[in-house]
Design brief:
By secondary structure, the protein is an alpha+beta fold. It has 26 helices and 20 strands. The strands form six sheets. Strands 1, 2, 3, 9, 10, 11 and 12 form a seven-stranded mixed sheet that branches. A hairpin with a 2-residue loop joins strand 5 (104-108) and strand 6. Helix 15 runs parallel beside helix 16, helix 16 runs antiparallel to helix 17 (483-496) and helix 19 (519-541) packs antiparallel against helix 20 (545-552). The longest helix is centred in the middle third of the chain and has 26 residues, at 308-333.
């Protein structure tokens, strides 16, 4: 076995492509080795903005050999009456590359056939690699690629290729670049060519030429160095894994520089200062032990630490310009009261519907109306906060900071809150402006007050209704307008703050505000959100999808109520699986029997012929009001306990009563009894939808 090294040298890649490309390259090499039955050990991947590399410590020089059975003609055709091979057998043996005497007889469903056992594989690994690797590189997937060297597509031009198997170079050509054993060092510190004689020396050799090729090691160096720089002033870097990953993929040899800026810029909000440092400059913010922002930053550079005194002034100068812009935006924006900005929203386009341009102002008015309607019966919230917060919720879209300060667009909502507080708005109203955007992504924080949640719910429902009303369809993974994400955010809000609303009613109210009367559209939106709700409970709470389906069938449209029902039912399954399954199986039997029952009369106790009928009827009559009462109080475990009382009477009924008797009156009476029992269970949910193994 020999070591193998493949390195692809390129012009600087976008940071996100470094990680994506390295993972895909590793996966494709592993797949190549496994599919071709080539033994390998110690596969590693290296990646920097200027190179991808694969190093395998040991790779077999040839692929493994294996036997393959080839079926030929039937025995009656392959041999004559005397047992001698016919022309057909001889031709088959020749085509299979074996001697006719080595043919064997096999029996399959069609009868007896001759077969040849041939050996395959054993091809030189170098030959297989020579053919496969250009295809592997061409198949790497990136968000954006450019056309280089005629038709070859790749994110950046390829500048060199190293391809060694042991000490031998494998000759290939990709996009007009031929492979060899020459790589490049760090572009600034060691820009010359570097000859590689032994693949196993790759990592050490690169480090000698100031390239930390191992991505994990380079990231650890970044973390260590930025901490070290911040500690020089007794500070700490604000943790930011996303930024650490980005700068790790921007440099080949990381060093860190501590810089500073004027304290006057700390008069701006922390979010603005931190964003100015991060968004374009990729600087790390520094705080003291109490978490207070300091007028310092740490920048990761792709150069030696000895040059930091030459580099620092430039880093500080660029940041100063950004902060000066932010200060200007801030001062200009505060000259206009937020209420005056509401009118300006008429000039901000939300989207087009039926060829008509809809402004953000119109959306804000709809959201305000819907939020107040949703909160109408909730005495725990301040309606005036909802009204004012909704009215001002999008005003920061008209500010210089958000509209023109492109690096600050991610602060939408936060800027609005900061301005509201600076202009003397009620703190709760200011919170609505920011918090109605929450959660912005899966796992994000939730609003701290219900007023914000009502506005956030109304905002999302308004958007979902507006988009679906245009005929928008979510197909497979295609969802360019992000309706799935909006729906999950809506569910997060409702469940996270336990907002009790009837979802069907809420969507209907939104459609009324739009002036839309379309039952089909209402059902389509409701079904879409409930599908996301099913996925949400399964992924977040571990509730089985069929249990969610069962409780949704209750007809309840309150997601908080449905979630609690589903969790209680799922807990019963986990804690008392045998009891749970017997009850479910009983309901499945009831559902199956009633499937084609048609119209049924009222239950007539005088037609009962068996004691089991009477016991089931009396028990059911006694249980139903208790179940309804428990459900009304949302004591779902209590409701299930009442339903479980019916288990034994149902079991005995099915054991001793023949439902489909020939006597029509008795038969229909028994079916009516089962329908009554099913109705009681359906108050909770349709348990016949629950999947039971073996049923």
């Amino acid at each position: 076995m020999k070591p193998l090294l493949f390195e692809l040298g390129v012009e600087e890649l976008p940071p996100s492509y470094v990680t994506i490309g390295s993972r895909e390259l590793r996966a494709k090499f592993e797949d190549f080795f496994k599919k071709n039955r080539i033994e390998f050990e110690g596969l590693r991947v290296f990646a920097t903005p200027r190179r991808f590399a694969i190093l395998a410590e040991k790779v077999a020089e040839k692929q493994s050999e294996w036997e393959k059975e080839i079926i030929g003609p039937p025995v009656r055709v392959a041999f004559d009456a005397s047992g001698n091979p016919t022309k057909a057998a001889i031709s088959f043996a020749k085509s299979a590359g074996v001697d006719v005497k080595d043919l064997k007889i096999v029996t399959n469903k069609k009868g007896e056939y001759v077969a040849a056992v041939v050996k395959e594989g054993g091809v030189d690994t170098a030959e297989l690699l020579k053919e496969a690797v250009p295809e592997i590189v061409a198949s790497l997937k990136f968000k954006k690629t450019m056309r280089w060297a005629d038709s070859f597509r790749f994110p950046r031009p390829i500048r060199w290729i190293v391809f060694l198997f042991g000490q031998d170079a494998i000759e290939i050509e990709i996009a007009g670049v031929r492979s060899g054993n020459i790589t490049r060092g760090h572009r600034l510190i060691s820009p010359g060519e570097v000859e590689i004689q032994d693949p196993l020396s790759y990592e050490e050799l690169m480090e000698k030429h100031f390239v930390i090729a191992d991505l994990k090691k380079r990231r650890e160096m970044v973390v260590e160095k930025i901490k070290e720089e911040a500690s020089k002033i007794g500070g700490e870097v604000i943790p930011d894994d996303e930024l650490i990953d980005e700068v790790t993929n921007l440099v080949e040899f990381p060093e860190a520089v501590l810089g500073s800026f004027e304290e006057k810029y700390l008069e701006l909000s922390d979010d603005v200062v931190i964003t100015a440092m991060k968004q374009h400059q990729r600087y790390f913010s520094v705080v003291n032990k109490d978490g207070k922002l300091l007028p310092h930053f740490v920048a990761v550079i792709n150069n030696l630490a000895e040059y930091e005194d030459f580099i620092r002034p430039g880093l500080e100068r660029v940041l100063r310009a950004r902060l000066e812009d932010a200060k200007f935006y801030y001062e200009e924006d505060l000259k206009i009261p937020l209420e005056d900005r509401v009118e300006k929203l008429k000039g901000v386009v939300w989207r087009e519907m039926d060829g008509q341009v809809i402004s953000v102002y119109e959306k804000v008015m709809r959201v305000k109306e819907l939020a107040l309607k949703l909160a109408e019966n909730d005495d725990s919230v301040d309606k005036s906060v909802i009204e004012r917060g909704a009215l001002l919720s999008k005003t920061d879209l008209t500010t210089e900071m958000i509209r023109d300060g492109k690096e600050f667009t991610k602060l939408e909502g936060k800027i609005g809150m900061e301005y509201a507080l600076a202009l003397g708005e009620d703190e709760r109203v200011a919170k609505v402006i920011f918090e109605h955007h929450l959660p912005r992504f899966s796992g994000d924080q939730l609003p701290t007050q219900k007023e914000s949640a009502y506005v956030g719910i109304a905002d999302r429902i308004d958007t979902i209704v507006g988009i679906f009303a245009t005929g928008y369809e979510v197909k497979g993974s295609q969802d360019p307008l992000g309706i799935r994400k909006l729906s999950y955010g809506l569910i997060d809000l409702i469940l996270g703050l336990e907002i009790k609303i009837d979802l069907e009613d809420a969507i209907g109210k939104s459609m009324e505000i739009y002036g839309i009367d379309d039952e089909t559209l209402l059902k389509k939106i409701l079904d879409f959100i409930f599908t996301r709700f099913e996925n949400y409970l399964e992924e977040r709470l571990g509730v089985r999808y069929d249990i969610v389906d069962a409780v949704i069938a209750s007809g309840i449209k309150d997601l908080v109520n449905l979630k609690n029902r589903a969790v209680a039912l799922n807990d019963l399954l986990l804690k008392e699986p045998e009891v749970f399954e017997k009850v479910v199986i009983g309901q499945k039997r009831v559902a199956n029997i009633l499937k084609n029952a048609g119209e049924l009369p009222e239950i007539n106790p005088e037609l009962f012929e068996k004691e089991e009928e009477r016991v089931l009827f009396e028990t059911a009559k006694n249980i139903e009001p208790k179940v309804i009462d428990a459900l009304n109080r949302e004591e779902f475990r209590e409701a299930l306990n009442h339903l479980l009382v019916l288990k034994d009477p149902i079991d005995k009924f099915f054991d001793n009563v023949f439902v489909m008797t020939e006597n029509e009156s008795v038969r229909k009476n028994r079916l009516a009894l089962l329908k009554f029992v099913r109705r009681i269970f359906n108050h909770y949910g349709d348990l016949s939808k629950v999947v039971v193994e073996g049923q």
